[in-house]
């Protein structure tokens, strides 16, 4: 089977892990850098040129699309879909998952529990912010990843000053209630083909509230509750993501969905749990392509 990883970082851990998993199962697997792809429509047919060659022999692609490349990366995945090439995540799922507010809206329509969240409006902002009380408030940029663009404001005045600054630069953001009992911890769950394949509990480094491993957080394997599994699986299904990372907070009200990542990093979860997540992704591709 011919499989391509769509990635601008051939030497990144996640990309290399997928390559090794594909080769281990005797597939021809290569890296395609979206930067060098030319998508075109000719004679009513979707065609793709990589460097100076037409690509027409792929069975599947594994998108690793960064938020900074959402528009072109999503367009590329959509082009592969038009070419009838299987993609582990849909172009729809990538586009919606990389817009936090769109994600919250879609998941809310499916009844998935989340912290109270408000879109940063240009009107009556001070009044909307008062709905969160005088305590801490989380401010998130709509397109931030790996914990970047997430701000903890200790009180109403700090939050108001922050959102006014963001407004002045026309930055899109959301305001979210602070779940104090989570104590800087969350759960990262990897879903592949509608099943939970790995999970870990992450804890923020001292002095930080963000649990991302990229920011010095630590992690340990965790056994999930049925409710936590259900939320993760449902989120992946609603967003049409065959592969994704789902972040959940443990709260007094039960598990709350925090974020969905269409391009989850594999290094932390594979290292901490010892689970071959990349292998699970290749198995998913085999199942889907062979069923056609």
From TrEMBL:
GO process annotations (BP): SOS response; translation
The keyword Ligase is annotated on this UniProt entry: yes
ATP-grasp domain span: 104-286
InterPro entries registered for this protein in UniProt: ATP-grasp (IPR011761), ATP-grasp_RimK-type (IPR013651), ATP_grasp_subdomain_1 (IPR013815), Rimk_N (IPR041107), Rp_bS6_RimK/Lys_biosynth_LsyX (IPR004666)
Keywords associated with the record: ATP-binding, Ligase, Magnesium, Manganese, Metal-binding, Nucleotide-binding, Protein biosynthesis
GO cellular component: cytoplasm
Required cofactor(s): Mn(2+); Mg(2+)
Protein name: Putative alpha-L-glutamate ligase
